[in-house]
Design goal:
Length: about 450
């Protein structure tokens, strides 16, 4: 269903018909052709053509602010040096400083590797291979959250990444289908092929600095009125994708031989085919039932082994494992991380010891407060009986402090917690060459400082 623009916006559009269009600065990814790029100081690519159409259908005039890298473009729009980025995916991190328009272009992401690499079923099929991904792309955030065991190699651009992949600096690269194909052809990297698709696909929209959020209505008004034939023309102009797959002729020959042998056996035993088919079908159904039951039990066991049975949060072992993974990532890529420890202290020891239901209800309130406050990338666990830990990957202590303050305010707003517990919060940022025990010990010192200050506050360790 197409959204109807607000009455106020229509009035504004009509009243400004004779006035000069509003000038809007924007930044792009300078090295993401054919989606968008800067060549000889000019903006070219798919997003450039959509930007022209949006300008035609609105009272906006777009002015390019050149940048050298995608990371710099994100920093510029966050700082307000440009107001808009015309083509990017939404993510939890970006929603902190951007408002997003309606999506207007869909594009798949692919996995690229050297010839001879088998087809890969998404990130789950990558295994122990190292993965290259452009710094600042949504895929970095997505892989870190859903596939934390993958070894990442951050690269400056897809073009540079393909060169490094061809030189063997890593095993697999994630990129956008159309741009990857163009760079492979332009660089004549005949040894590289597309070996699979990578979730999630790109759903590209305009990102607008929150200070200029009123522009979203104007941009959406134009997007909803882009003629379908112009979308098709843009896609045809830039889509020259040719996916190349390698063939293993030995496997093909063996497959043909096996098929021929099976056909001969079927002919020789035609009289018994029906009987054997029924037996095989019955056995396959039994095996399928057993496999489904085993899979469900394995999932249940995996959940129980990593989660607390009262709050449903991750348990101590899982938190330690995730923290050590984050320390390893810090040592490789120097992406900082922060640790927040929340501890409850009973106001009435006698009540706390004997009223089990009150205790469990309070712990569940803390868990719900954590889950409703933290970001998707953060990891929350019940570390001990009344102690909770929030791991904040790629987060400085300044940003983590804001999150800790929100979390404390959320918990202090629950009457059950105020009547039953005192709350102390300590936090610290990961240091160079620091193990988890040392990191955790410094955070506990901050927690003790919070207690000494009378609880109900957030203390930060040095």
């Amino acid at each position: 269903m197409v959204a109807t623009p607000s009455f106020a916006y229509l009035q504004n559009t009509n009243s400004n018909d004779n006035s000069a269009p509003e000038e809007v600065t924007y930044c792009i990814d300078p090295n993401w052709a054919p989606y968008e790029a800067i060549r000889n100081g000019s903006h070219i690519g798919i997003s450039a053509q959509y930007l022209d159409i949006v300008s035609e259908l609105s009272d906006l005039k777009f002015t390019l602010v050149p940048t050298q890298t995608w990371q710099q473009s994100l920093e510029y729009v966050q700082q307000g040096k440009c107001r808009v980025i015309p083509m990017l995916n939404t993510s939890d991190y970006r929603r902190q400083f951007l408002d997003f328009s309606l999506p207007y272009f869909e594009a798949p992401n692919v996995l690229v590797a050297k010839s001879g690499t088998p087809m890969l079923q998404g990130y789950g099929g990558v295994g122990n291979r190292s993965v290259g991904v452009v710094q600042g792309y949504r895929q970095v955030e997505y892989i870190s959250r859903h596939y934390p065991s993958l070894r990442l190699k951050l690269i400056a651009s897809e073009q540079e990444g393909l060169k490094q992949l061809a030189n063997g600096e890593f095993d697999v690269m994630v990129g956008s289908l159309m741009s990857v194909n163009m760079h492979i052809n332009n660089l004549k990297l005949k040894d590289l092929i597309i070996v699979g698709y990578a979730e999630p696909f790109d759903s590209l929209a305009f990102g607008v600095n929150k200070s200029y959020g009123y522009l979203v209505d104007k941009i959406n008004y134009a997007i909803e009125r882009i003629p379908e034939n112009r979308k098709v023309e843009i896609y045809k102009q830039w889509n020259n994708v040719q996916v190349r797959y390698s063939r293993d002729y030995l496997k093909l020959f063996l497959s043909v031989a096996v098929v021929l042998m099976v056909l001969l056996l079927i002919i020789a035993r035609k009289r018994y085919r029906g009987h054997f088919t029924r037996i095989i079908q019955q056995k396959n159904e039994e095996i399928g039932t057993l496999q489904a039951a085993l899979l469900e039990k394995n999932r249940t066991l995996a959940f129980l082994s990593s989660h607390d049975n009262v709050t449903g949060l991750y348990n101590r072992n899982h938190m330690i494992q995730r923290a050590e993974e984050e320390i390893s990532r810090f040592q490789r890529f120097h992406t900082t991380a922060s640790l927040i420890v929340v501890e409850l202290t009973s106001i009435n020891d006698e009540q706390f010891n004997f009223d089990t239901n009150t205790k469990e209800d309070a712990l569940k309130v803390v868990a719900a407060s954590c889950l409703s406050t933290v970001r998707e990338v953060d990891v929350v666990s019940r570390f001990s009986d009344e102690q909770f830990i929030v791991l904040c990957p790629q987060t400085s202590v300044e940003h983590a402090k804001k999150l800790a303050d929100r979390l404390l305010n959320c918990m202090l707003g629950h009457q059950l917690l105020n009547d039953t517990f005192k709350i102390a919060v300590g936090m610290t940022q990961l240091h160079e060459d620091e193990e988890f025990n040392e990191w955790f010990e410094r955070t506990i010192k901050a927690l003790y400082q919070s207690k000494r200050l009378g609880y109900g506050n957030v203390s930060v360790a040095d």
